[in-house]
Design a protein that fits this description.
Length: 331
């Protein structure tokens, strides 16, 4: 059940297996909507069970609901029947508000519910690892300060950004530890907002915080998979790879072959079939062709695991999901 070992086994030529970021489409099979799913630990557990049971995924991943952590801090969350929850408004607008920001307990918001879902999933899924979804520190700070405003603040008020990042890091270590204590085999940490940063800014505002979180949580039996679907990934690879994650998951904004050519053989890379245009809006034929093309380009690399480029939307066709796994299996 060691996810790190399973991923390296799956990367071998001749034994390729996939691990897409797949959870929300299970709502279709359950007859529930997204809002119902994100507000129930029992439904989240059921979703993870469905993915584990009905696909050949290496591991089952909990909901990648990137509103949970910001909501715990007190940010306003907008729920929808069809879309993942979104953070609205701005919780921190200046240094004084950053100073006043309180690091919440796990009992705040829906975090404890998500932890409970992972605990129940570990009890019920006995043949595959269970991974918990969690947001990255800069992406969390962006939701607390507003995504646009934090980009300006990195230049104009860097001290404020660092104060928020320090509190984000403290909470994410606490939240990640709660997932670990609940039995999770690892985390998928989504840090997409860092994908907008140049190397210097990534090295200041994201990488050190991610690295410390990984150092505090990761061990031989618990792995952190780093996800970044930004289009600047290729320019910040050197910075990203210093973080020490067990694997690195990239989106379709980058050419996976170019990434692999620039990646040392002892670093595991995952990705990157387009979650929107293929899984959600493609056809079985188109996703089969896209997956075969990816495998023909990247399948020979023994440090590559095929995956979706990002979290697969709730309305994605299960025929498309099945076609993706079949195309990987047929490689």
């Amino acid at each position: 059940m060691n996810i790190r070992n399973l991923l390296w086994d799956a990367a071998r030529v001749g034994s390729k297996r996939a691990m897409p970021v797949l959870s929300f489409p299970a709502a279709q099979k359950m007859g529930v909507n997204v809002e119902m799913l994100v507000k129930s630990s029992a439904l989240q557990t059921q979703a993870m069970e469905i993915v584990a049971r009905e696909t050949d995924t290496i591991a089952s991943v909990s909901l990648m609901d990137l509103s949970v952590e910001a909501e715990a801090f007190g940010a306003q969350t907008r729920f929808s029947a069809d879309e993942v929850p979104a953070i609205i408004g701005q919780l921190v607008s200046d240094e004084d508000e950053a100073d006043e920001l309180v690091v919440p307990e796990i009992s705040a918001g829906r975090a404890s519910m998500c932890v409970e879902a992972v605990r129940l999933a570990k009890e019920r899924i006995t043949d595959k690892p269970v991974l918990a979804g969690i947001i990255g520190p800069f992406s969390l700070a962006g939701r607390l300060m507003d995504v646009t405003e934090i980009m300006y603040a990195c230049y104009d008020e860097p001290e404020t950004v660092h104060k928020v990042l320090e509190k984000a890091e403290e909470y994410l270590v606490k939240y990640g530890q709660a997932m670990k204590d609940a039995g999770a085999d690892g985390l998928v940490m989504a840090e997409p907002l860092a994908g907008l940063l140049n190397p210097e800014m990534a090295g200041e505002f994201s990488v050190p915080y991610v690295k410390r979180i990984i150092e505090k949580l990761q061990d031989e039996d618990f792995a952190v998979i780093y996800h970044n679907c930004g289009n600047s990934v290729s320019r910040i690879l050197n910075e990203i790879y210093t973080q020490g994650a067990a694997a690195y998951h990239f989106g379709n904004a980058v050419d996976m072959l170019d990434v692999l050519k620039a990646t040392p053989e002892d670093i595991l890379v995952m990705g990157n079939i387009d979650a929107s245009s293929q899984f959600a809006n493609g056809t079985p034929e188109s996703i089969t062709a896209a997956t075969k093309e990816l495998m023909e380009k990247c399948g020979a690399y023994t440090n590559f695991v095929p995956s979706s480029g990002c979290d697969i939307p709730a309305h994605a066709s299960w025929d498309n999901i099945a076609a993706f796994f079949e195309a990987v299996k047929g490689y």
